[in-house]
Write a structure and sequence with these properties.
The chain is an alpha/beta fold and 283 residues long. 26% of the residues lie in helices and 19% in strands.
């Protein structure tokens, strides 16, 4: 949990528990799993226990809500950075109910629920047609197969905002089937977050993938947030043989590009000379 989160697209993060299990290629180098192992907590995998928290932890969002109400300024809460709220385990059901109750008690906080399991949402939420105004529902779309699989499931829910996290972006993603119908309907996306993978084992995100996603969003008037290049950043062609810089064929543009493992801090988050921090207008 973190007040004033370091994640660029949220104000706070809140974890109702720690732990998860991998479900797709985007999970391969999971940062949350690495962090849990680093601090000596075994919570990853189907057979491992999950880590739960006490009263003080669960009261923190109430304080955030009071501050937001006093400032008359809504705050975003990413839930959950170290778990998946819709993981199917019966031992999580009481903690999910505690989360739904907390969301109801914090109307000045917009809760961003991000999942790789949109097929499980209906079985785990207490809301049917009337979703709370302070719940934003999102799914991870790391490549086209995941877009084809998860987007139809996400968009059947009429949450106030529905968003995509294309991070780590592992291939080109065509959103055309889901962004043609505007203004907002049950066939619309309200926000797209994109970024490359971080860490020493990261897979590169090619520039054409990021630019194509940004351009689709701009053409459809969908807010776009570029979070980071990740571990790999685009560079010019090396003047001599270099064992670090790698050559790729960009399957979106058809161009040869070069990328270097710089680390996410040095690689930065500028795309074509601009920082993309767009949010849904009503936010």
């Amino acid at each position: 949990m973190a007040k004033n989160s370091a994640i660029e697209w949220t104000d706070h993060t809140f974890n109702p528990w720690w732990g998860c299990a991998k479900v797709s290629c985007g999970c391969e180098n999971c940062y949350a799993e690495s962090w849990a192992k680093r601090v000596g907590t075994r919570v990853w995998g189907y057979r491992e226990n999950r880590r739960f928290f006490g009263k003080h932890h669960w009261e923190e969002p109430l304080s955030w809500n009071a501050d937001a109400a006093k400032q008359r300024q809504r705050k975003r809460v990413f839930c959950a950075s170290m778990a998946d709220v819709f993981e199917v385990r019966t031992d999580l059901d009481p903690w999910r109910q505690r989360l739904w109750d907390l969301i109801a008690r914090t109307p000045w906080l917009d809760w961003l629920l991000l999942t790789k399991r949109p097929q499980k949402i209906e079985r785990k939420v207490p809301w049917n047609a009337a979703w709370p105004d302070n719940v934003w529902l999102g799914t991870t779309v790391e490549d086209q197969p995941r877009a084809d699989e998860r987007l139809p499931l996400l968009l059947q829910y009429d949450a106030k905002f529905r968003f995509l996290s294309c991070e780590p972006l592992l291939g080109p993603v065509d959103l055309t089937p889901w962004i043609q119908k505007r203004p907002r309907s049950l066939q619309s996306i309200d926000w797209v977050i994109a970024g490359g993978e971080s860490g020493p084992n990261a897979r590169p995100m090619l520039p054409g993938w990021a630019r194509n996603l940004r351009d689709q969003c701009q053409n459809a008037s969908i807010p776009f947030h570029f979070k980071q290049w990740g571990h790999w950043a685009p560079v010019g062609a090396p003047t001599k043989e270099d064992g670090v810089v790698r050559k790729f064929w960009d399957d979106v543009t058809g161009a040869v590009i070069f990328m270097e493992p710089k680390g996410k801090k040095i690689a930065g988050r500028s795309l074509d000379g601009a920082t993309w921090d767009q949010l849904p207008v009503a936010a």
